[in-house]
Structures are given as C-alpha cells and as structure tokens.
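Discussion board: Methods & Data

I've been asked by a reviewer to show the raw model output for two of the constructs in my manuscript, not just the figures. I'm not sure how much to include, so I'm pasting the format here to get opinions. Each protein appears as its amino acid sequence followed by a line of discrete structure tokens. Is this the kind of thing reviewers expect to see in a supplement, or should I convert it first? Here is construct A:
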Amino acid sequence: MNDKIILYPSNWLYNAGVIGLSLYKPNFCSFSENYVEISKNLFSNIDLLNDYFNSERIINLKGKNDIYPNFIDTSGNQTRVFIDFIQSFEEHLSGDGFCNICSTPYYLNKDRLNTLNQTHLDNAEGFFSKIKKFDMVYNRLLGASFKKFPNGFWGMQQSLEVCHLCSFILLHHHLSFTKLSDNSQIFINAPSFKVMYELNRLFRAIYETRNANDRLSIREILAMSIIDYALKIPVTLGYWASVNIEVIIKTKDNIDFFSLPDEVMRIISDKQIAYLLSEIGETSILKLILSQKYSELTDYAYKILRISLKKDEELQDFEKSYLKYLIKLKKNINMKTDFANKLLKLYTLIEEKLKGVEV
C-alpha cells in the first residue's frame, strides 16, 4: 500500500476537501464504504502552475483571493516553494506526526524538508511556518486572523496543527460545494466518503436539471438525492442515515447546518418507500413526508378516490383547485385511482417501517 494513501472521514471541512480533491482528480481516487484511497501518482499528474495560480480551474492562490486569502505570499517566491512542496508528496510523505484536522496525518520527511528549506531559503521558512497552523489562509470565515483572534470553528482555539497533506486537501473544499441561485453554497456531510460523494453528486444533478418553476427547498432536494441513492445502491442507506447526514450551508458571511430528522431519514432511505416515492413523483407528497404528516396520506387518497368517480365536467371548482395543488404530473392526473392507491400503499409501508423502528 506504499503507493496509496488511505483517508478516513473527519470534520466536515476536511471531508469537503477530500471530496473536492476527488472531483478534481477522480481517476486517482477510489471510494470504499467509509474511506477513500488516493494514488500517490496524483501528485505528479497535477498542473500546479496553471490550475492553482493562473486560472480559476481550481483556485488562484496568489494574493488575497476570497477563499484562501494570502495562502501564497506574493512578496516572496512562495509559488515555487508550493509547487516543489506538492510535487514532493509522491515519494517523500511519511505517516508520522500529529494533526488536529484529520485522523491520518502525513508529513514530508525531514530530509526532504531540509532540502526545500536550503533550496528556497527564507521563502520556504515563511511558507512552512504559515501552513502549520489553522488560520485564515485555509478559510476566511473559519480561520483565526493570523493567530491574533480566537477561532470560532475549532472551539475558540488558536493553535491547531495542520499536517502537510491536510494543508493541500483543505485547498479543495470549495470544489465540493454546490452553488445555488442566491449565491449560497451547499455541501452534504456524512460518515462515509462514498455516501458523501454520491449524495453531493446527486444533489448537484437534481438542482441543475430541475424545472425553473419548481421551487424546491434544500431539504426537498436532499431528500430526493437520498431517495435516488437508496434506489441505486445494492445495500440500504439506513445505517448511514441513522448515524448522521447533515447539510452545510455557506453564505458570504455565515455558515449554517441542518439535518433531516432520523425518522424521516429511515423512511426515505427504505428501498420500497424510495421506489414508491419515485413512482409517485409529486413534490407535494414529498413535502408531506418531510413534515412527518404521514396520516394525511390517507386523507389525500380518499379525497382523490371520491373525485375520481366523477367526470371532469362534473368537478366543482374547489375539487379542481385541490387536484391542481396536489398533482402536477400528467400521468397522475390521468390515473387518479392508481395515484390514490399508491398513496394508501405508501402510508402502509411507512406505518410498517415506524413500527419496526419502535421495536
């Protein structure tokens, strides 16, 4: 395994960095259930100069960029130090040391560090001094301001160690966020890198392909992503759902968190329920589930069954309005009885699932 680096989930910022790196170089990253293997060949297959300094393909690290301000000191030749530093990872990383960011710290060995310091003199010393502690160069919102102020994200501490590999991984956390129309950004965090990768990919795909008229909330898109994933994977998502899946919402000046209730997670990650919700396909029903108003499914079903006994020209205005509110898909309008029966079946499956949870 000397040609591989194995990384395990940690805090959400680190997790976002790992997912971002895997999105940048997917051919060098492979996911297992709760860890990711990274080939060391990755570090010799990066266009460091163009991707990190001359374009926005990854990030322009020079100067006061909005995400990693002053990571590279433009007054010195730290660009060259950074390039030689990262290129050294393929052959000179060691698993020794301590890191407050991850559970698997990696540092360059002392011989290589000495060589870099001798090659770049004062530029290397300043660079390595700057990246060894978590401050604003890693995150404008979360990092302390050059060790002068407490760090809110890390429990008001100012001296958290950052290993050499994490100093690189954290520079990719922005790539894992999905940018929304209001300029806020979303990342889905979980105890498994595989679950994280798939849920963020599905969330982005659903968000980008949704109908402009569909005013879906973040919770609804998250639920749709979980339903889609539950239908595709060969094992249930129930275990991971019961552990914790949270959404990080980043705005210009703030970071918020939320998660779906455990009960809802268990329900929508059940394969039978996920399949039926996908078959129904109505946002109104999904909203009902997310609000945990399961008993209203039977009320909806019986009202639709009564309406289905009438011809279209016999419907009163309030009945037409009810159908318009509840049903958007043409297939459900044309097959109202079938739609109602699916709602009754959904209610039955949810009740069975809840009884199973309680036992």
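Construct B, same format:
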Amino acid sequence: MKRKLSNWSKPGERPPCVGVWETRQPIDVYIPRRYYNFWNGRSWSASARSPKEAYKLRKIYGYLIEMDVRFRGLAEKPE
C-alpha cells in the first residue's frame, strides 16, 4: 500500500517535527532522485537513499543549505 505524501514545502520553511523527511534541493530538479534526511529540529543530517538509512545517519551533520531545502512527508499520521 502506498502512503499519501504531503505537498513539497515552500522555500525557507522548516519541518514541523523531528524525523526523516524526503528532501529536494534546487539542483535536484534536473536530477530526479529521492533523497532522505533526518531533521533534528535545528539542522539536517547527511543525505541517504532510504528513510531507514537516513535515520541511521541522523547524528552525522549534513551540508544542506536550509533556505533552499524543500521537503515532504507523510500526509497522514502513521498507524
């Protein structure tokens, strides 16, 4: 079963809660790949190719420029 995802965030917006988010930077418009990052409430972790891997990398600082990061997550609360 596919889960419904929210719309992409607006530029400069911050995630509403701590956790793994699918992320996209302006360069990703030309390279359609899925990347996941852990948001700790202040900054993004290193990028990963899966949500599980992003969670494992949660303590490794990433180099995402926060103003340019677009993110999305689950549209509904998981059961």
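Answer (T.O., handling editor elsewhere):
This is acceptable in a supplement if you add a one-line summary per construct. For B, something like: Helices lie at 51-56.
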